[in-house]
Design goal:
Blueprint: H1 7-17, E1 22-25, E2 31-35, E3 38-40, H2 42-50, E4 54-56, E5 66-70, H3 72-76, E6 82-84, E7 92-97, E8 107-113, E9 120-125, H4 134-149, H5 162-173, H6 180-193, E10 198-201, E11 205-209, E12 215-220, H7 227-234, E13 241-243
Parallel strand pairs: 10-13
Antiparallel strand pairs: 1-2, 1-5, 2-3, 4-5, 6-7, 7-8, 8-9, 10-11, 11-12
């Protein structure tokens, strides 16, 4: 299966994201895919559905018209993300400009979370673009950004609105929630980044220690030529490593 849509598929995804794409009954063909921009070849939409970039809402009959909807994965190909580890309030933030819209003019949505605790402070999607997988795409982008930058992975607050709780359940059902290993790894990287956990490179081992020099883990043997190599191995910044050789 393909991992990236081609140009034609991207154009069709953009049309689907705009809404009003329907699958309808047709004679002599089984179905037609219609949109405000004209008819879309059914095999193209079928491919998008197989790749899980789009889905058919079968809650209506073909005679009524079944909505063709973009998934969070499909929407992720249309969005670009702008991220910061600390905004003016010290929170991590990922923004998604609207497809085709200039940055700073039209923001499709954003997610804000505490970079050390991981608790999500706010998730927002432009009302005109809700129901298109943008929040879920932001959730995935935020987790990727946290993992790449040693931040705590975002997690849902214990206090959720009804709408927020429903969205959290959908995210879990889509399989976009991190594994336990990912959560713990991101939490440890965040603790290293903020100086709560130290990494020491000795001649014959690597030591990871918490408060009061409590050893949390170690790597035996001379495996690393220096801080840069160790940093790449652990996925942290080289400046966080104490080279004690």
């Amino acid at each position: 299966m393909s991992t990236q849509p081609n140009r034609l598929q991207l154009r069709v995804l953009a049309t689907i994201a705009d809404g009003s794409v329907r699958q309808v009954a047709a004679v002599p063909h089984p179905v037609r895919i219609v949109s405000p921009d004209g008819e879309i070849p059914a095999p193209t939409v079928n491919r998008l559905v197989r790749e899980k970039w789009a889905t058919i809402n079968a809650s209506r009959t073909l005679n009524e018209g079944q909505a063709v909807e973009i998934t969070a994965l499909g929407m992720s190909f249309l969005l670009s993300f702008h991220a910061t580890a600390a905004d003016d309030r010290g929170h991590a933030r990922v923004e998604a400009p609207g497809p085709g819209g200039p940055y700073g003019n039209h923001v499709a949505g954003f997610i804000v979370w505490h970079p050390k605790r991981g608790e999500v402070q706010y998730v927002h999607t432009d009302p005109s673009m809700r129901g298109r997988g943008i929040a879920t795409a932001l959730w995935k982008a935020a987790h990727d950004f946290a993992e790449q930058n040693g931040l705590a992975a975002p997690h849902h607050s214990e206090k959720l609105t009804k709408a927020g709780a429903a969205w959290a359940r959908r995210v879990a059902a889509d399989g976009d929630s991190p594994t336990g290993d990912q959560v713990l790894a991101n939490a440890l990287r965040a603790a290293i980044r903020y100086g709560d956990v130290g990494v020491v490179l000795w001649d014959d081992e690597v030591e990871i220690a918490g408060p009061d020099d409590t050893v949390l883990g170690n790597i035996k043997g001379r495996r690393f030529t220096g801080s840069d190599e160790l940093a790449r191995f652990l996925g942290i910044d080289a400046g966080a490593i104490d080279d004690a050789r």
